[in-house]
Amino acid sequence: MSYNDGTDAGEGSIYLGYGLIEANGELNRRCLGYPIEDGALELSFLPSTPEDNIKSVEAALLAMGFFGGLGSRSRKGYGSFNLKKLTRGDETDPVFISPSDKDGLKRAILNLFDPDGRYKILRYDGLPPYTAFSKMMRIDILDTSDEPLRLLNSIGDKMMEYRSYRKEKNFLDDYKLIRDALAGNVIYNHPKRSIFGLPHNYYFSSTKESAKVKPKDHERRASPLFIHIQRMNESQFAAITAIIPADFLPHGEKIMVGDSPVDADVNGYKVLHEFIDGRDTPRFASLVRVIERHSEDPFYHRPSTGFRGPSPKTRDLWSGSFLLSYLAGCAIKCIQDKGGEIEIPDVREDRLLDWIKKPRDKKDNPIIGSLPNRFEASAPNPAIAAGDAAIAVSSAGGR
Q1: Which residue of 3, 65, 219, 241 is 20 to 30 Å from 99, comparing CA positions?
Q2: Closest Cα to residue 189, out of 202, 177, 204, 175?
């Protein structure tokens, strides 16, 4: 593959096309190239078809035009499908015309999801069982360029840097986890990077060892991060991303880390939000937020089976319950210290949380774990707050 000027495509575009594109940049199968000739699609409905049903098809076509694609690696931007115009029957005014600039693109996406607009689309409240528009979804325009492949390369470069522990040191725990699995140790968690999709493989060149992380009873799970290239005019393209949370795997499904089956606890989407937002500095300098998520990811501290184990004595049950409540309190305190607010539950007069914030005399130590191990919070920067809360729990648990 090469850019318009004949130079070889960069590593980022090859990375996003993994499986379709070899490491040397050669395609390993035929695919549609750029530019692509325009096509036309005509849909016919029975005269008795309700208007709401027709409009739902309209909305699906528009959504595919903003976020969808055709063929392999379509969630990574390859094969992006663009809808240029949508008309109804003999009507002279089109229902939709593709926007020609970034501001128009933002307005068009907002119009599609306007609850009071033409399609009256409402957000699903909570985590959907399948890919759907919900209060946890977010949409951004990352960047623009005069060449779509260069846009993909830029995103791919940043994703490689973010996911590589050698570059940004973000996922050192994943590296240690896989090392433990290869050493034959019992594993209770899966890599945080699982949220980017399964399976994903590890290879250590120093020892020639490899490990695979995949669903136990399924072959794959695609990433909830969608990348789409939108053509705005003859010389400008935009990169749209959509994070669309849903149940990551069927209930009860395990994730295999090497030979170890572990619980599939992949409902924390902060890893993806942090990729888009960056940490100390913005990752994409010209990012435009289109739709903000209205519901924060619930923070859920789940004890590993190896930690909890059998509890034959009442004191073991009490101490385990109290410890989990205490760790939840440490996470809540951290989020509040970062300027966040706890939405659920009401912790304003919780005795355990007050004690965590300001320990008193030992005679006044709380003995009841009054905080649940699941809560919902909002914060100015949710990804960073959630990450700091996880660190607070880890630190408190190691005391």
Answers
A1: 3
A2: 177
Its pTM stands at 0.74
Read off the pLDDT of residues 8-31 as tens digits, 9 standing for 90 and up.
Answer: 889 999 999 988 888 788 888 766
Does residue 304 register a pLDDT over 50? Answer: no
> Which of 191, 199, 189, 194 shows the shortest CA–CA distance to 263?
189
CA 227 → CA 91, 96, 224, 385, distances in Å?
33, 22, 10, 25
Sorted by where each begins, the domain ranges of the chain are 10-295, 297-399
Q: Which two tokens stand for residue 241?
A: 């991303």
In contact, 246 and 130? CB cutoff 8 Å: yes
What is the tens place of the pLDDT at every residue in 60-101? 999 999 999 988 899 999 999 999 999 998 888 999 999 999
CB of 164 within 8 A of CB of 157? no
| Beta-carbon count within 10 A of 141 CB | 22
Q: What is the four-CA torsion angle of 129, 133, 135, 139, rounded to 10 degrees?
A: 130
- Reference 124, options 114, 116, 132; nearest CA is 132
Core vs surface per residue 342-358: b (16+ CB within 10 A) or e:
beeeebeebebbeebee
* Cis check: omega of the bond before 115, within 30 degrees of 0: no
Comparing CA positions, the residue from 297, 382, 296, 292 lying closest to residue 109 is 292
